[in-house]
Amino acid sequence: MSDTPQADATVANPVIPGFHPDPSVCRVDDDYYLVCSSFEYFPGIPVFHSRDLLHWTQIGNALDRPSQLRLTTSTPSSGGIYAPTLRHHDGRFWLSVTNVTEGVGNMLFSATDPAGPWSDPIHLPGVPGIDPDLTWDEDGTCWCTVAGVAQVRLDPYTGETFGPPRKLWSGAPGAKAPEAPHLYRIGDYWYLLIAEGGTERCHGVSIARGRTPGGPFEPCPANPVLTHRGTDHPIQNTGHADLVQGPDGSWWMVLLGVRPRGGTPGWHVLGRETFLTPVEWVDGWPIVGEVPTELPAPAWPLVPGPVEAVRDDFDLSELRPQWISLRDRPAEHCTTKERSGWLTLRARGGSLDEPDVVFVGRRQQHPTCEVRTRIDPAEGRGGLAVRLDEEHHYEIEASDGEVRMLSRVGPLRTVVGSRSVPPGPVVLVLRVSTTPPRDARTGPDTLTFGFEEPDGTFAPLGALDGRYLSTEVAGGFTGRVIGLYATTGTVHFDWFDYEQSAP
Hints:
The structure is a single chain. The chain is 1% helix and 49% strand. By secondary structure, the chain is mostly beta strands. The protein has two domains: 287 residues, Glycosyl hydrolase domain, family 43 (Tachylectin-2, Chain A, 5 Propeller), CATH 2.115.10; 190 residues, Jelly Rolls, CATH 2.60.120.200. A hairpin with a 2-residue loop joins β31 and β32. The radius of gyration is 23 Å and the shape is globular.
């Protein structure tokens, strides 16, 4: 912990790397809390805490019980949980979100402690669409604003709405996808912040202001106030922002962006990440420059959180909050209690091509990394995978006496290589490295899979182009998740290492 500002210090941007899109932030006294979308993964909505706005530590997941989050096997990848808004009002934290799974829709949760437990959902049948925002006016009336951009009065304790949704403002003429609305009272005005242009390369942030929370709204003459469209900036797709004040009263914006790499058109593999950028106010409007890749030391003390351990020994009774599963996580299929100090996975789906496969992973957060795990496959088959969705994943798996590497890209499923190994536990290895540039078609990275011989020597089985596990190839809204799986019987994992490596 630093007790004084560090004039020569910088903090890397993104402030929360890896697949952490659609950030929403709120400040309570000297503490900051932030949430992100989680899509088809369970538990849902990661919750982060910070004391300095730059260093963030995950403290839980808001939706960690089946009664809060229903994701059936018919929920497609990039379906599920979209765009939460986090706010604090009247001594409680409030969380509004959309579950796009058929028949669910918009929901509202609350808690006195953002680390949990959070309430069961209050369903909002009178709130249409996606991206529900919450704000309260001076009279205590709660307003919910949604993508489109429309607004309805809401009782947050019951979910009752009053009157039909009313259109407010739809951003720049001709701009597609006005969404991610956030409404704030700042000074003499109510400010309506939105994303527009779609969440790809044309993404941007625009703003309007009015004298009441219902408008009418006057658009900022400098809209969009933030976009990297048409630039060669290393951060692209900037948008879906939220405003917050720093400890010294300065203003900041959290937003999503991506880091494309490789040749043309550029491939981003980590998903949409959470960035931070400073905001200045001029003549009643926010001015936002380009999002920096490094943030200079702020005017207040830096408070780094705990350093995440490289190894998880699975020695706790419950998995740490960074671990996520596909759609659900029944205890009979995933537990650390069956064999002390091991993670036990019991198969359900027969491969990673299937939506009900038993998979437990963590987000890839660095462009280069090394991952290792020790697996005992004596009672089944399972392994180590890099997943984007059911049709885009690479993996290395072990069964008793054999290790093999597989690739699924679109309709093509291939066994890349296999080797016989001695019976018993084996260490599986993934190395993600930067691909040296060759021409405009060079992919962003190379994924090399292998295992460790009994003497510790690395034995590679194959290396694959990382572009095929990118959003530009697969589509969707998520990023890579690296994890463990079982496809036959029962498999046990002694430990899991994840470590950033040199480019």
